Amino acid sequence: MDLINKKNLIIAGPCSVESEEQIIETAIALKKSGKIDILRGGIWKPRTNPGSFEGIGVKGLSWMDQARKETGLPFGVEVATDKHVENALNFDANLLWIGARTSVNPFSVQMIADSLKGTDQTILIKNPVNPDIKLWIGAIERFQKAGITKIGLIHRGFSSYGNTEFRNNPLWQIPIEMKRLFPELPMICDPSHICGKKDTLSLIAQKSIDLDYNGLMIETHINPKNALTDKEQQITPNELIQLLNNLTLKSTKSENNHFEKELNKLREQIDFYDDELLSLISNRMNIAKKIGEIKNQNEITVLQSNRWNEILNRTIDKSEKLNLGKSFIRKYMEAIHLESIRIQNEDY
Ligand code: PEP
Ligand code: MN
């Protein structure tokens, strides 16, 4: 079994490798817990602003190697160029990952994929910084075409403008779609870069377990207050162990017959309601089509903003009484309305 094909895989270690003592002390504390599979550390740091600490460079690799010798933990580093790959392979890095600022750039991804040709290296691909699922898929395809088979994905969230709840918005629908498209690729959650702070890490980690992810990558530093990068989000090895102990692990299947029966009964009801919804939506669209025809005969615009406003207010008011999320019903009604407009425009 290869390195990343394990349920509840835990990758931990500092955002950046800063000194030999720091990485070895961190590795020893992590190893002691018996819960960590792979040690991570950034050697080359892609930073948003120039002048910030940009990584310790190649000497960090020999420190990672030393940490591996002392603890037996395999190690992984981020690579962004073919030169990084060459250096990492010289030190037999067990795992490479490409960061969110790299997977966004097809030239860089191709360069890294080409430099891995002929190896059986394990590579994890972080989602690109922007919510462009095609870029993420394209990156996977570039590695697959280069003959790399040990591929996994890391969900680290997507950047957005202004102050938001998360450093990087999780947009769970994107990794969920990736899991559907690539069920054979392990999906790892990186709560550190999603949250950007410590207090919500466990919430996001638990959510990823509930969504049947394969593991976690969490930034861990022996002394987070003095970390040179991402100090707000790094936790100590002890805090990490506590966090892991408090998670509820979940399985996809149950041995419990009663549970399976109950679940199947409820699922039959869901299928029934899905069929009902589809036929109701079809009826609604048929009426919209008729409205489109008479609007056209009378030379009336398809879009009637006042009417749309009325529909939206009425349905949102009603949704509150039915305990349905306001923003969900807004999105749902917007999708229905757009489709109605498309149908009304179709034949003319
Ligand atoms: C990192 O893992 O330290 C890192 C730079 O992450 P990302 O590419 O997700 O920003
Ligand atoms: Mn980081």
CATH superfamily (homologous) name of the largest domain: Aldolase class I
Low-pLDDT residue spans: none
Structural class: alpha/beta
Using the coordinates shown, work out and report the CATH topology of the largest domain.
TIM Barrel
Rounded average pLDDT: 96
The major pleated sheet works out as: 8 strands, parallel, barrel
Strand content: 5-15%
Order of helices and strands: EHEHEHEHHEHEHEHHEHHHH
Shape: elongated
What's the Cα radius of gyration? Answer: 25 Å
Number of domains: 2
Bound molecules: phosphoenolpyruvate, manganese (II) ion
Q: Alpha-carbon distance between the termini?
A: 59 Å
Enumerate how many helices there are, as a single number.
Answer: 13
Annotated CATH architecture of the largest domain: Alpha-Beta Barrel
Helix content: 40-55%
Give the strand order, joined by hyphens, for the main sheet: 1-2-3-4-5-6-7-8
What is the CATH first-level class name of the largest domain? Alpha Beta
What would your notes on this structure say?
This protein has helices at 20-33, 59-71, 82-90, 100-103, 106-116, 133-145, 173-181, 191-195, 201-210, 237-246, 257-297, 305-321, 326-346, and strands at residues 9-13, 38-40, 75-78, 95-98, 122-126, 150-155, 187-189, 215-219. Helix 1 runs parallel beside helix 2 (59-71) and helix 5 (106-116) runs parallel beside helix 6 (133-145). It has 2 domains: 9-246, TIM Barrel; 257-345, Chorismate Mutase Domain, subunit A (Up-down Bundle). The protein is of the alpha/beta class and 348 residues long. It is elongated. The N and C termini lie far apart (59 Å). Helix 7 links the parallel strand 6 and strand 7. The structure holds phosphoenolpyruvate and manganese (II) ion (MN). The site of manganese (II) ion has 4 residues, from loops.
